[in-house]
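Appendix B. Extra example for self-study. Work through it before the problem class; the solution is given directly after the inputs so you can check yourself.
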Amino acid sequence: MAAPAETVSRDSVDSLSARFARVRNLSVDLVATLAAEDTVVQSMPDVSPTKWHLAHTTWFFERFVLETNVPGYRRFNEQYDFLFNSYYYTAGQMHARPKRGLLSRPTLAEVLAFRSHVDDHMMRLLDGQDVAGELAEIVTLGINHEQQHQELLLTDIKHVLSCNPLQPAFDPDLPVPASRPVDSYSYVNGASGIHQVGATDDGFRFDNETPRHDVLLHEHRIGARLITNGEYREFVADGGYEKSTLWLSDGWATVSQEGWSCPLYWSEDLASEFTLGGLRDIDDSAPVTHVSFYEADAFARWAAARLPTEFEWETFATGKPVQGNLFESGYLHPVAGGDACQVFGDVWEWTSSPYSAYPGFVPLEGSLGEYNGKFMCNQMTARGGSCVTSPDHVRTSYRNFFYPHMRWQFFGIRLAKDGHV
Ligand SMILES: [Fe+2]
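Solution. Structure tokens for the complete assembly:
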């Protein structure tokens, strides 16, 4: 599919409208290598079709910005409110998530026309005025929401393409990152005592990163880098998937039920893995990716270690740089290079912390209060940001959250241990 013409000017002098234009255009640019047929498929309930992502992010701006800020605004299509609402029950009923792949209509062309319609109205709203206050906050939230869906779009299309026996590449020209020598795994002493965690007053943050508050950190040490494919291969070769004593009860039940014997996308002979660039040899020096919380936890137990808490991770991550990633550098999967700590830009790192509210947490008002807070049950916190996260969308306090059996995100492993050395 040829890249559609840009519908949003990049020339705006208003920084908010310029950022809106840049992020909106990127979503369309991302799908330039796909055929229209690729954008319709839903390979499992956790995956949404590419076309749905393009439409849902547009619905967000129409529903939460244009309808409340543009007098007389008329929806592009009344039926889209039902089709492209994700989980905002206070905004109305919605099409069932597992059935998103049945939406052969509206067509991709119609969805792109929906995007153009909304973008035109948004640019008229944002241009020519000093956007501030509540409007600026909701537009900024919408931009960050779109960036979340850009990552999901790439994560989801990887799964979709992996299910096709033809093993098509998302982009066959994506480069393979250079391997690098990997030292033996080492730890650095982590901060201990009372420390502040959570979002600072600088820049955008989601409500679940607030309020900033004190936590008590016990003496611990944390891994200086991520666990590699080569190290995970040793766990597999040592019968890691066959020893129930290494696994949490729910994890062992999941392994047994699903028949897992290696990370998602690895071939059975452990030689190759499916990537956004197609089938590639496994790079033993690259961070292991696409493991569940259960697998990360079992690996840590096998390695006589544990996963870090999210606050141990956050204090370690403070001040660390973003690695190269797909958006900045065209990398196709986690990169073993650059700064050795690998905190941002490689994989989302599982922590041992359940996803829950910070003391004094107050969700956003109205429908957007459903954005994060209602998911604070039975999920685990993942920290960092992966090779498919926009570099300007990661920060130390960012909290991602997933169910412990999930593997399709770019998840990886960092270890921790009790005590200092
Ligand atoms: Fe969404």
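Self-check: The radius of gyration is 21 Å. If your reasoning did not lead you there, revisit section 3.
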